Amino acid sequence: MKKFLALLSCAVLMAATAVGCGSQNEKITVVSREDGSGTRSAFSELMGVVKDDKDNTTDTAEVTNSTSVMLTTVAGNKAAIGYVSLGSLNDTVKAVKVDGVEATAENVKAGKYAVSRPFNIVTGKDLTPLAQDFISYILSTDGQAVVDEKGYISITQGETYKASGQTGTLTIAGSTSVAPLMEVLADKYMALNSGVKIEIQQSGSSAGITSAVEGVCQIGMASRELKDSETAKGVTATKIAMDGIAVIVNKDNSCSELTSDQIRKIYTGETTQWSDLK
Questions:
Q1: Which helix (H) or strand (E) holds 260?
Q2: Alpha carbon of 172 to those of 13, 24, 70, 199: distances in Å?
Q3: Residues 149 and 227 in one domain
Q4: Which candidate, 197, 196, 209, 141, places its Cα nearest to that of 167?
Q5: Closest Cα to residue 56, out of 268, 230, 269, 270?
Q6: Angle, to 10 degrees, between the axis of helix 179-192 and the axis of helix 129-138?
Q7: Is residue 2 part of a domain?
Q8: Which domain does 169 fall in, by range?
Q9: 42, 47, 102, 240: least surrounded by Cβ within 10 Å?
Q10: How far apart are CA 250 and CA 43, in angstroms?
Q11: Domain total for the chain?
Q12: Handedness of CA 158, 161, 167, 173 (dihedral sign)
């Protein structure tokens, strides 16, 4: 009898563990970024949500228009799942492992965590001396040290930056994922060049690229690769960092790991209940 009860207890424990994610009867709240978001574009491509050039994100997804709103939305909903820039991840939400790999800068750099994308700056042909000097700072050993310090992945080993004495105003616009890193880089640069003012506008990757094309800003920010149709308009992309995309759930969700296929099915609407993730 004791042996039977022990086996029964073990079976119950295994069954409870098998559920793995969320509440057994709770519907998944899918949270996505808006059209034009570089993070959405990269995430959808990497997770197989895009097929035949069509983003098949479920129509029932809640759409957020910035990284900060995404974090707030998932933090406030126990049934929610979303995704954010790894460098913007904070302790208000929980990042799950993807295909058994933890979302860390070290794992992105080592090629183990596959959900990653570039951070690009977008420029036209006629760069001002100020814009060129700021880019030189970003790609210098000093700028790339800031990239690593803020939890992103540096991509180059440039020369040491020396203050240039530039003056004037520089306007930068685009990705809300790149913006937090750009704000730190801008502050560091302005501290070295006191006559410079850098204005950063968060408008999404596609809008930032368009602003660079139209000359509304000197530098655009994009958290994805440029499309051929965009480079055909005379702008080029320069990679300044790599970033992982963390798949996030509410801190009260028991889910700690998902496969790429499970994530794809959640975002295409094939899987709608947390209890189906076993």
A1: helix 260-268
A2: 54, 46, 22, 6
A3: yes
A4: 196
A5: 268
A6: 110
A7: no
A8: 118-243
A9: 102
A10: 19
A11: 2
A12: positive
From CA 217, how far away is CA 145, in angstroms rounded? Answer: 26
Task: Please check the confidence at residue 21 and state whether its pLDDT lies above 90.
Answer: no
Q: What CATH number is associated with residue 67?
A: 3.40.190.10
Q: Are residues 217 and 132 in the same domain?
A: yes
Pairing state of beta strands 219-222 and 196-202? unpaired
How long is the chain? 278
Summarised one tens digit per residue, pLDDT across range 139-178 is: 999 999 999 999 899 998 789 999 999 999 999 999 999 9
Residues 34 and 46 in one domain: yes
| 239 and 119 Cβ atoms separated by less than 8 Å | yes
Expressed in percent and rounded to 5, the helix, strand and coil fractions of the chain are: 35, 25, 40
Q: In the structure, how many helices (H) and strands (E) does the chain have?
A: 10, 13
Do 147 and 49 sit in the same domain of this protein? no
Amino acid identity, residue 127?
L
Burial of 12: CB neighbours in 10 Å, binned 0-12, 13-18, 19+: exposed
Tokens of 90: 């904070």
pTM listed for this prediction: 0.78
Q: Could you report the per-residue pLDDT of 202-238, keeping only the tens digit for each?
A: 989 999 999 999 999 999 999 999 999 999 999 999 9
User: Nearest-CA neighbor of 56 among 68, 47, 65?
Assistant: 47
The answer to whether residues 77 and 167 belong to one domain is: no
Q: What is the mean pLDDT of the chain?
A: 91
